[in-house]
Structure formats: structure tokens, C-alpha cells
Amino acid sequence: MIADAEMVPITGPVRTAEKQNSGKAEERKSRNGKTGQGARMDAPLREYIAWYEAGAVRILDRRIYPVEVVKVECQTHREVAEAIRDMVTQSAGPYMAASMGMALAAWECRGRSEAEQLKYLEDAAYTISHARPTTTWRMTKITESCIEAAKKEFSRGSDDVSEAIKEFSIEQNNERYAGMALAGKYLAELFPDHGAVMTQCFAETIVGMMLREAKLRGKDIKLFCPETRPFFQGSRLTATVCHDMGFDTTVITDNMPASVMKNEGIDLFTSAADVICVDGHVVNKVGTYQIAIAAKYHGIPYYVSGTPDHGHQTIDSVKIEFRDPKEVLQAMGTATANQEVKGYYPAFDITPPELVTGVVTDQGVFAADRLSEYGAKPDGFLV
């Protein structure tokens, strides 16, 4: 974990500047390879994305990482929802933040009657899960499962279920990592022994797992990471993980993928997804669609990692989030355009199944038009 250094006041949730290489409280090592209380499978990847502790949730501010390592401190579950909406946490980060936010909500209503607390948690679950519209189904599954964990703790006579939800969220996170570790093995098998792979705004879970497996297999690959403006997740997040995992990593701008595919010998294009519909449509960071088109033209396979969202049987049920257009008129807080011109910012785009070579899951690789054969429980998913 990263230890506190100083408090930096801002509007809304508090930002806390922090140093690296400390914090035994957040990382409790497991024994005999099994997860214990507080143990986290993401620890080897240094991904402390969100953490609840005694009335607050601290979330790594990915809007400025890795230039600065700062955490936003949320004092209420509404501030957690605000942090998710404001892109403080990105990629798979909102899922951990959501469950830790539910622990914070439980802390807020502790000591009330069981009925009052459950009503409070249900309201909090709605607030958190609807912070961003495109991923509402996944977020709802997470927050609802936290309520079920609370009910089990209530049955034991407790009037404060915050720690029980926290421990449940850790186990939930561990399950995601275990599933993505399997997916990472299947994905690494598809990599050439020597070659180049292009990514797109990749979730740290799968990119870390696939690269760990690639290293174990002795794969000598180069990574090319588009920036993914306007928040630069590719250059700041994906590229940082790739570099930290020990791989040759190159950042390219968002208008370079086709040229790089042609000139640099890209062997494979891969991404995670925010939604994978059962009908094979993939919803991911805007820009994925155009890279998939370029990959198809150049004969490069595109593999997406995750599992089908059973709450979205078809693409028709997915609502694409449109963010403040002014966000595309700046970069990292610096204006990059005439502020009187218009901006346009869909956060995600839709890649049709005919552009997807395969969907890599914890159960193997599925053709995009055969995702109904995936055998997970109806509410299961990986991120």
C-alpha cells in the first residue's frame, strides 16, 4: 500500500497525496497459496485501486497516475459514486470501488434497525451502480451481492456489517483475479513466440495476467499501446503495467494504429471490454471499433477478454455513456482546443461480432457468435 503524506483539499472527495512502498494494513499475505482475511490477489500487480477503512474509502486517482500517486478519500458512499462518475477510477477499478463503497454505506447506517440498514444499503446500491450508465448491469450485480453478504452478517446478530462487506469485496476481487488468471493463460497461448501485440485501454487485471503468463512461457513480445484520449488510459495505465511487467512497451497516439499495424508487423490486437453482449457485440473504450476495422483489413486477429454479460443478450439493451463534450477540448487539465468550438465524447463504442476473432474467457476461447455456449452462472462475469 502507499502511506499517507499530506492532505490536499479539493471540491468533493478529499485527495490525499501518498508515497509508495508502505502499508502493511492493506496487504496481508496469504498462507499456503490460499487467500486469507484481507489477502488480495492483485497485490503482485501493485494495483491498490480502492480500500475501505473505518469510515472512508480511498481510491487511487487514475486521472493523474503514474505522474503522481494520489488517492481520493471518500467520506460517504455518494462521494464514491461521484469518484466513479468523475473518472477517478477507470478500467476495472470501479468494480472494486463499488463494493468498498457499499462497505462505507454500511458504516454510515450502522446501529440502526436491520430493516433500516437494508433500505439504506439498497438505496446506496442504486446510487453506486448507476454512477455510469454503460456498466450498470455489472455494477448492480456487485452491489446486490454486497447486500446479500450484509444479510448473512445480520443473521449472526451484528448491527455493523461494514467489515463483513469489506471482506466479501476482497473475496469478490480475488475471484475476478482467479478467473482472469485462467483467461490470461488462454490469451497468452495465442501470442507469437516472438512478435508484436497491440492493446486498447486494457484492464489491469487481464493485461497483468496475460503478461505474467507470457513471461512464464518465454514469449518475447513487444507491446504497442494507443493513448486512448482524452484521459490517456493507454499511455498512463496500460503502458505502465506493461512496462512494470518487464516488456518492451511503446506508446502510440490514437491516430496511429493502422499505420503501426502496416509498418511494425503487429501480430495480434487485444482488449478487454466493458460489456460483452451474448450476441457477440463488444462495448469498450471509444476507439476500439476503428482499431478492430484496421485489424480486419490487415488480417490481424482481434481477441477480447472477459465473459458475456447475461444481462445484455443483445446490443439493444446497452446504453452508451456520453460524457461532458468539454472533456475532449483539454488534456490532463490543459486546454488543447479553442474553448468555443464543440466537443463530442461517447465514452465507448460498439464493435460488431464479425470483427471479433474470439472472446477469451476463463473457460477458453469462444467465437463471438457462440457466446451462448459459455457455461458460467447467469450472474458471473470477469473484468
Fold and architecture overview:
Helix 3 packs antiparallel against helix 4, helix 5 (162-189) crosses helix 6 and helix 6 packs parallel to helix 7. The chain folds into 2 domains: 3-178, translation initiation factor eif-2b, domain 1 (Four Helix Bundle (Hemerythrin (Met), subunit A)); 190-373, 3-Layer(aba) Sandwich (Rossmann fold). A hairpin with a 5-residue loop joins strand 1 and strand 2. Helix content is 34%, strand content 19%. It has 383 residues and is an alpha/beta fold. The chain has helices at 77-85, 93-108, 114-129, 136-154, 162-189, 204-216, 233-244, 257-264, 288-297; strands at residues 3-8, 14-19, 50-52, 57-60, 70-74, 194-200, 220-226, 248-252, 268-271, 275-276, 282-285, 302-305, 330-331, 334-335, 348-351, 358-361, 364-366.
